Amino acid sequence: MHGLLIPALYLAAGLAVYAMLIHLLHSRRSAHRREHQLFAAMSALMALLAIGAAHTYQAGDVESYTRALTLNLYLQGPFFVLFAAFVAAHTRTPARPLLAGLLVLLAITWVVNYLQPYSMQFRSIDEIRLLELPWGETLALGVGSLSPWFGIAVAAVLMVLGFALASLARHYQRHRQPTTLLLLAGIALFVALTLQGVLARLGVLDMPHLTPFGYVVMVIMMSLVLNRETEERLRDSESRFRALVEQSPIGIQVLTPDGAIRQINPAWKHMHGNAASLPGGNVLEHPDAIDRQLQAPLKAATRGQYQEFGPLPYTPPPDASGTGDDVAPDAAAERWLRGCMYPLRDAQGEVQDVIVMQEDITTQHRSEAALRLIAEGLQARTREEFFQQLVLKLSNLFGADYALVGLEDPERPGVVVTAALCAHGRIVENVRYNLAETPCERVLEIGTCIYPCEVQKRFPHDEMLVDMAAESYLGAPMLDSQGRLLGHIAMVNRHPVDDVDKAMEVLDIMADRAGAELERLHTEEHIHALAYHDSLTGLANRTRLHDDLTRHIEEAMIDGLHGGLILIDLDHFKTINDALGHAVGDTVLGAVADRLRSQSPEDALIVRLGGDEFAVVLPPRSHELEAVEPELRVIAERILEALQRPIVIGERTFAVGASLGCVCYPDAGETSADALRHADIALYQAKRAGRGGVQFYRHALQDEAHARLQIEEGLRRAVEQGELSLHYQPQFDSAQRLIGAEALLRWQHPEMGAVAPDLFIPVAEETGLIHAIGNWVLEEGLSQVVRWRAEGLQPPRLALNLSPWQLSRPDFVDQFRARLRTLGMDAQALTLEVTESGLLRDLPDAIAKLGALRQSGARIALDDFGTGYSSLAYLRDLPVDELKIDKSFVDELVTGGDRTLIENIVDIARNMELDVIAEGVASTEQHEQLLALGCTRFQGFLFGAPVAAVDFADHLRRRNG
């Protein structure tokens, strides 16, 4: 024989290429795609290795031999990496570290193979020896010294083969597959041929190395194993698919692209009958009742489009043995189907079959229909309407003779009150009944209960069941989201219940829906109460007042009626809160609310606006305003008298009192905001009149309020725009010596002109502007003294008025001292005047602060003495240097008034070693009488009017000159 080995190698290369192509095709359709892809890559390398081996055997010199050998070694490394990956994938063996190591070793061997002159196998090649085979074929073999890298490569190959043998052995132990043994045999033969090749390379065996044929054998066996396993998986898949189709509860029909019936499963036959859609028929040429409804989707599916259909109504044929839910159908009963159609394609993408799947959804469809009815019927706005619709829907849905919603009577435990009762399709009057020994009691105890027949025998003492001639009973509890019991719903029939499961399912759904709706209504009522009621007193709140008052005013304007509004502000309530705490104050407010309820008409709306403010709204009731106003006054005075009576809480007695402002609408306001604003104006006037009274709104009050608002707005810019100024009025003693001057605040409004202090000072105190104004007065007065002294003048002691609000500031004393230090002034040049009423706001604090000011050197004067409380008890404790007699007492001296009070003031001052100065002295007669009474210090127009700073400076120059 001649030329056998070389052709065998080329034949092996061809077989490897064939295997590559086959397994590439398999990889497109197989679930084990990765194994086929790895094997196809190995086959491609195997073909190249076989050709490379043939080239080495046919080399004519060292150079060509070396070139062919180097190429072969480049290919062997990737082959063994792919081989290890294939075995790992086939046996499901984790091998990432091994593969990573092989890739690193592959890179190293490629570099070495490239750098070595005779490949990584030989250190040197001495010659090319020709080996003649027994059949006469001559092969070229390299003769030389082997490289150490060759041993490393052989060790790596043996390691890979050892990994493969161990993995396959474990795989066989787990699965006992014969194909695994075949693969083991192929790898074992490959190991033997590899060892033969190594020995031939080492010169131990005088024969060509047969490793390439080991590759071929292994590839053939691996291909056989993969093909065998692929066929087995395909058969298993077909078997599982067939079993799935046969055992599926969903009806399945397999059609050809032409519409011919290829196969049906038992569920399809069970659904459509024995004679329906048997194999051999054609749904496109001879459609049945259902197929006629599906012609368009059937044709689309045969063209390769996925289609869904349903729900579709159908009537089962007489020979149908059942339906998808295993309930024998009534032959005349309509049922419902839903399904889909999807095409199966072959390898070329052509439609091979069409799978039609149908499911009986009659039960689901009926439940959905019931739910739609429930949803449609339970859209109510009130609790009563909701419950009535609920029982009507229950009665209509099930044909029940009676349907009811029961709620336990909160005042009588064990008694149920029906919130809605439907009898024979109509809403009837609600009833009460005892729970004991009734099926409703069982529902509330254990949950949903059903008595499909003979319910009267089970509960012989239930009289209502007797009256209803009941035969069956179904009941379910209504629970909220937290599981709390709210009530129950029930159906009572004079006939037994047939479809128990369906009835109970829908009843439970309706009970849940009713519980959720009832909880929502409770929540809405609670939110409404929070939104429209005061949580402390239970009265209506400001929001409710605006809503109702707006509605009443609109009604009054349309019908020509009149109504009333009373605004109430408690007197001295803040004192109770501050002295005894908010808990006592809240109790007092609750008592006030009770008295308002008892004294107001039944149809009146009683409101707590917040804090200690209340309101009473009288709805429109008369066409004559003259009739409404007297009635409103009587109600207001009755409320005032009730609030003036002492309130007893525990061992304490409180005298509260109130001021009331009244308006009649729509005359005093065509909107709720106007009515409230006008009532507030009237209330303000009631407070100004001394509190504890009733004041009706008059349009003149609006002008006064407008003027007050104008003052308030003007005050906000008066300081910034320089509209305020200080005038200075001199003070003299009995010898006509200038002993001081009082700084008096003046305001020149750009539109109103000069505004009197008794008009704007109260407004400043009420709005809080007094702080800024008081600070300006103090700063301006001190600065003026500094300026006079800088001009060489010697101004007398300057008297500055302190507002109670200024004195109440915690940091007032520190700020006052800081101002003096900044200006370089001595406090001995100042007299600070305070009023009695201002000190009584917080007497201990006032005493401490006045003492600190006095220690700084300032004199303290008590202004308007005698007009307030004038108690010797506090006067003894106050750090005061001077008493000022109010102008009102001085005016009485010329009108024949009582001189005793002035005489007493002078005596008190003399005994307490205090100075006395009389204000408002305007005539010589007043001056003489005051001298006779012992007063020696005076201030008034008799001695000089208040003048601007520049004029007072001229007066000082004249006196000094």
Features of the shown structure:
alpha+beta
Task: Describe it.
This protein is an alpha+beta fold. It is built from 33 helices and 31 strands. Strands 22, 23, 24, 25, 26, 27, 28, 29, 30 and 31 form a ten-stranded mixed sheet that branches. Strand 8 and strand 9 form a beta hairpin. The longest helix has 37 residues, at 211-247. It is elongated, with a radius of gyration of 56 Å. It starts with a helix and ends with a helix. The model is unreliable at 322-333 (pLDDT under 50).
Explain briefly what this protein structure is:
With 961 residues, the chain is of the alpha+beta class. Helix 1 packs antiparallel against helix 2, helix 5 (148-175) runs antiparallel to helix 6 (178-202) and helix 19 (582-599) crosses helix 20.
Oligomer: single chain
General form:
elongated
Range of strand content: 15-25%
Gap between N and C termini: 160 Å
Task: Give the proportion of residues in helices.
Answer: 40-55%
Number-wise, the strands total 31
Uncertain runs are 322-333
Q: Which secondary-structure class do the elements indicate?
A: alpha+beta
Sketch the major β-sheet.
10 strands, mixed
Discrete helix count: 33
Structural Rg: 56 Å
Please state the average pLDDT score. 80
